[in-house]
């Protein structure tokens, strides 16, 4: 009765405040505001009274609604994951949100279910019961195995904490200053505030801002703008560290009941459960700033995972050595080396990074002012190390158990998948690649992004590589198959 109205009131808070400021203590404004709050409270009461759920032997049923009733049935054998999330409001009230992710039905519609504001102990009980019964229905567990349905549990844990693979130390929060996404947090906040004001106040806010700029002293306005930009730039690392800490506060990765459970968050506490049997590999990602400090991020490559960007995180940004140690303990690490790609791939990388700005230099010399020539020339020179770094990042390898592919520079990723997860290979060539004897080799897997590409690899060497990984799949199609 509290969570729903408060969440809806949050989205209406800014319009209500602006209405009160603009309209003053107008009786109509106050009456409309009061009527809206009463309507939210009534809606919360009706939602609480009409929402019911039942866990049967083979299905979960959720019923809600008074005027417009809905009944959602989720077969338990289709359940892929059960996540428990608690915002700050939920944690104050001692409740949580249970999200049930299920495979899509025959019509392609999702069967996901959501139970908001469930008691924390009940949320943990539901997760254990649903996952256990799913295992029983799919034949991976015995019906006689207890599911601890009545066992008490606390927030984010339960009585059985399982094996704790890693708990992020506070010193890791400083790595937030290396992430481009976290560094841009101040600009994202300003854009959000500007958009909210623009949508709420409309032309009135725009006209007021224009009038303020027109009436202000030009020199003072420039100094104010420059000072604001400098302050924001100086505060970018601080905002980045704070954003990182809020998102990944108390990050813990543990293994429990055949699943990896990742818990994180300061204000919003989120617990994501990933079955190990559905994890087919992992991905290490970094950017140039992170590479300078030897830091990477870790994500899981999982079959049938919705919201992969948020739910597949196994570790936030941290030292590569410690991240790889966690991979070794929890999943099994790729132990081979990566094969270098031909020199022709370096030429292609340099042409892509230097070619466009070089054309811009020629255009600037012919038609542009002097400052455009300097700018485009600087971009051309900067393209050389970028192209070299993109080439040095290319690589692919096989260690007898796992296939690994790496590419990228500004955003570099190394994806590693189990050999058993490989379901196909795709070679593609452009006209220029054919002339250079190169090809893009995509490792097709039924998980994650669906495929991972070794860019600009040697065509002949990539065919031999694929035949070495999956000989039964590739060698029947070779003109001269070798044992």
From TrEMBL:
Signal peptide: none annotated. Residues 48-128, 249-328, 398-452 form the YdbS-like PH domain. The chain crosses the membrane at residues 12-42, 172-197, 221-246, 358-384. Keywords: Membrane, Transmembrane, Transmembrane helix. This is PH domain-containing protein. It comes from Nocardiopsis lambiniae.
């Amino acid at each position: 009765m509290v969570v729903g109205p408060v969440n809806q009131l949050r989205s209406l808070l800014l319009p209500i405040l602006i209405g009160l400021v603009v309209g003053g203590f107008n009786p109509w404004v106050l009456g409309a505001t009061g009527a809206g709050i009463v309507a939210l409270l009534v809606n919360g009461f009706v939602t609480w009274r009409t929402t019911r759920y039942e866990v049967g032997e083979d299905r979960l049923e959720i019923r809600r609604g008074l005027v417009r009733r809905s009944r959602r049935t989720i077969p338990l054998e289709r359940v892929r994951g059960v996540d428990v999330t608690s915002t700050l409001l939920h944690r104050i009230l001692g409740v949580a949100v249970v999200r049930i992710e299920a495979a899509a039905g025959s019509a392609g519609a999702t069967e996901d279910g959501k139970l908001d504001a469930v008691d924390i102990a009940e949320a943990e009980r539901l997760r254990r019961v649903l996952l256990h019964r799913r295992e029983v229905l799919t034949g991976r567990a015995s019906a006689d195995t207890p599911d601890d349905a009545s066992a008490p549990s606390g927030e984010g844990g339960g009585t059985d904490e399982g094996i704790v693979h890693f708990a992020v130390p506070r010193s890791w929060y400083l790595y937030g200053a290396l992430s481009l996404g976290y560094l841009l947090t101040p600009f994202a906040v300003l854009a959000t505030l500007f958009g909210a004001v623009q949508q709420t106040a409309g032309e009135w806010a725009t006209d007021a801002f224009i009038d303020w700029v027109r009436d202000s002293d030009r020199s003072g306005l420039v100094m104010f703008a420059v000072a604001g930009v400098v302050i924001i730039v100086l505060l970018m690392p601080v905002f980045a560290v704070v954003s990182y800490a809020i998102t990944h506060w108390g990050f813990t990765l543990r293994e429990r009941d055949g699943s990896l459970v990742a818990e994180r968050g300061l204000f919003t506490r989120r617990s994501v459960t990933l079955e190990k049997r559905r994890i087919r590999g992992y991905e290490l990602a970094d950017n140039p700033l992170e590479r300078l400090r030897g830091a990477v991020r870790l994500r899981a490559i999982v079959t049938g995972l919705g919201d992969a960007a948020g739910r597949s995180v196994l570790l936030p940004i941290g030292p590569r050595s410690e991240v790889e140690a966690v991979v070794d303990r929890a999943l099994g690490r790729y132990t081979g080396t990566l094969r270098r790609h031909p020199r022709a791939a370096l030429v292609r990388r340099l042409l892509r990074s230097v070619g466009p700005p070089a054309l811009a230099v020629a255009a600037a010399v012919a038609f542009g002012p002097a400052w455009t020539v300097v700018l485009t020339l600087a971009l051309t020179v900067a393209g050389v190390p970028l192209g070299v770094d993109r080439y040095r990042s290319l690589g692919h390898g096989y260690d007898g158990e796992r296939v690994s592919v790496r590419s990228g520079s500004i955003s570099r990723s190394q994806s590693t998948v189990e050999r058993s997860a490989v379901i196909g290979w795709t070679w593609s060539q452009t006209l220029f690649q054919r002339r250079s004897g190169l090809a893009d080799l995509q490792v097709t897997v039924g998980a994650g992004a669906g495929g991972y590409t070794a860019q600009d690899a040697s065509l002949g060497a990539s065919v031999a590589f694929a035949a070495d990984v999956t000989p039964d799949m590739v060698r029947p199609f070779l003109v001269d198959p070798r044992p």
